[in-house]
Write a structure and sequence with these properties.
The protein is α/β, with parallel strands linked by helices. Helices cover 21% and strands 25% of the residues. Strands 5-4-8-6-7 form a 5-stranded mixed beta sheet, covered by helices on one side. Strands 1-2-3 form a 3-stranded antiparallel beta sheet, with helices on one face.
């Protein structure tokens, strides 16, 4: 799906996504990533939902978000509570959703001026088996 944004040119915006990629500012990414409103797109060590660890959220917290959107791949899956403990301990809000929903929500919240970070799982070949 292609998205058309009318955002500040300094902001990161999701401009498209599919089952195995996310496009940020018209640059395609095929591996899991961390996305803030500004700054570079970061690679996320979390490669698959089943391999998520609490430590995977340290890089997300380093960006000091007020809210974290966790995109869990092609479908919504809820991580075990201990995995989200770093977010809870820091008082950071979070929402768990499938990756396409996280992409759409990210754009809306960035347009509202919110300090949001998206942690998006892009499972590539795994996504076909998860559906």
């Amino acid at each position: 799906m292609k998205l058309h944004a009318q955002a500040n040119s300094n902001s990161n915006t999701v401009t498209g996504y599919g089952h195995d990629y996310v496009e940020i500012n018209r640059v395609r990414h095929v591996e899991s990533l961390i996305l803030a409103g500004e700054g570079p797109v970061q690679s996320w060590a979390a490669a698959r939902f089943d391999a998520l660890r609490a430590a995977d959220f340290e890089a997300v917290l380093a960006l000091q978000p007020e809210l974290v959107l966790v995109g869990t791949g092609p479908r919504q899956r809820f991580p075990a509570a201990p995995l989200l403990r770093p977010l809870v301990e820091q008082g950071v809000g979070f929402e768990i959703m499938d990756t396409p929903a996280a992409c759409r929500t990210f754009n809306i919240l960035i347009a509202e001026g919110r300090h949001v970070v998206a942690a998006l799982l892009l499972t590539g070949a795994d996504s076909a088996t998860e559906q």
